[in-house]
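Continuing the batch. This is chain 6 of the set; chains 1 through 5 are on the previous pages. Same settings as before, nothing changed between runs. Recording input and output for traceability.
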Amino acid sequence: MITRTLRPAPAVACLAALALLLTAGSLHAGTTGKLSGRVVDAAGDPLPAANVTIAGTKFGAATDPDGYYTIINIPPAKYQVQFSLVGYRSFVTKDIIINIDKTTRLDARLEESVVTTDAVVVTAARPVVDVGLTSSLATLTSDDIQTLPVQELQDVVNLQAGVIDGHFRG
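Output for chain 6:
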């Protein structure tokens, strides 16, 4: 008995492969868009590390050293985009439309502004017991020395615990 295997013609095989690729490509078509652009100052110089955020979303980016940014995977909708950088006035653009499989270009020019805040006062305090210290330690500040009844440095040393006539115990 003779058996014969049927093989499709090369043209039919190519058409079938092409149809499969086109179908797979359409199934994985993008459902998001992209926002990109450049942030510069009033003189047109790039602003690195400027923040670009899309209001009401988790999307955002920082500009590169040349002032360019790109935000990807943005669902299609109408958005409000904010540009900000310390020392510059924030810039907001409303009604930016993001389309599927499209790159929306949005550039911004930020103007310098003065940043004013109230004075911050920091008061340092040492702990009563230093747990990292492995031996005894005596510290005198300039205020302590001024209140002591001494004339010379040797008198200050002699007033410390464990010191007798300039000799240290231990």
